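We now fix the convention by which a protein and its fold are recorded. The integers have meaning only within a learned vocabulary of local backbone shapes. A complete example follows; check for yourself that the lines match position by position.
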Amino acid sequence: MRDYQLPLSKCIAMMKLLAFCLFIISLINIPIAEARIRHYKWEIKYEYRSPDCYKKLVITINGRTPGPTIFAQQNDTVIVEVKNNLLTENTAIHWHGIRQIGTPWFDGTEGVTQCPVLPGDTFVYKFVVDRPGTYLYHAHYGMQREAGLYGSIRVALPDGKSEPFAYDYDRSIILNDWYHKSTYEQAAGLSSIDFQWVGDPQSLLIHGKGRLNCSTAKPPLKADVCNNTNPECSLYSMTVVPGKTYRLRISSLTALSALSFQIEGHNMTVVEADGHYVEPFVVKNLFIYSGETYSVLVKTDQYPSRNYWATTNVVSRNSTTPPPPGLAIFNYYPNHPRRSPPTIPPSGPLWNDVDSRFNQSLAIKARKGHIHSPPATSDRVIVLLNTQNEVNGTRRWSVNDVSFNLPHTPYLIALKENLLHTFSQTPPPEGYDFANYNISVKQEDSNGTTSDAIYRLQFNSTVDIILQNANSMVANVSETHPWHLHGHDFWVLGYGRGKFDRINDPKKYNLVDPIMKNTVPVHPYGWTALRFKADNPGVWAFHCHIESHFFMGMRVTFEEGIERVGKLPSSIMGCGETKHFRKP
């Protein structure tokens, strides 16, 4: 038989074809992470609860407050069916930190992106969680957030990917302050001509639990109202295994208070803020403001035969009636989870230690290898002076002496359906009297105005926001305001003390490794500079996250790319001039 030999060129071609076939076969066997659908069904209603031993009506989700944690992976679709069984109240739920790219109508901001959910109705939220990290959800109607309607969102990386830091276990903690007065009582006092401030909270809660001393409460409380033996108000206990590293996702949803959080005898390494990786730094106590989320790493490397205190306390507010520190038990297994530590709970930092809080803000930088560089310059600069004003005899919080009122027709619908007559078309001010306004003193003329006008931003433009703090209507008082932006993350370019210098301070901006966040504080008598891209079509709220300040008008609204927003679902309609848009 004669040998048959292929030409060399044909052999090479066949080998290439074989290699390509093997590559295709290998792809078939590669596990590909598929986005999933996470479906939740919630019933929202009022129930009597005693989170700090004091019995009152609270809003629960499926019988719980805080509500159920939403667990998902990056790029999953989350569907939440919300049944409003509050009987006499509307509601809406905001998904705090979720950018709602492509679904601006499910941001959950009543009056901005949707009409409220009526009593007895079911509303379905559907959105994609496009980034891993630690986020929140909470009511965005009236003052319902502080009545108990809140919870956590934890978004993990897809299978096969890992964080840039190692840990053994993952836990979530929400910090909150707690009032005994109903939100109705508080709202009535805030909006009356005879202004009544909400005052200090009665308790601080760690993951929904606190403990008021019923026997020393003033005025005295009856046993059927306040009972320290009620198991509902047993201290929150987090069980840990010695010799491990824990990722603690710490969030704040306080109505008023800026907080410090600390764990007795343990350092905390900050590694994440608002869903973005932080260049690690170590703290003894973590300062945290309403709306912020952090991840810290904690090593359980202390003496294992006892438990340790975790505490939180109020900072930034001088008060004659501060709430007692919030307490929890850092339980070293196998000690009993209710066994009290043998020590006195550690006291937190002084309330007026502004330097330490300011320095923590400066320390938060983007992690090397995970830096998202900001645009070098901006197209527009908006300065927001945080002011307190009198408007028609009522006390208001304002921006540039203008206090915000929501219209009856949500902006997203009004803009998309060309109902521009439903809100003012006069643009809000983009600054204040820089030359003559003294931020350090109480103003002689504190009169302000109200408006429902919004900022119209050019799509895909770069916008700088300068938050400028000032003295309130009380002499020698400038409060800390945490500001939260919906629909975006922003670069934190810098913090400063005193009045922002429009010429020199921008030269000091951090354009190298600024952290990206969605919530940021402006410190007393100081300024904070932010930069963001107006690249998410929709209408987005930007507001102080202190519940009473928000209620009193400390907020603005941005519109961008409204012409790019898709067809609006009829489910978000039904109020104002959209009543006839709602399909039965």
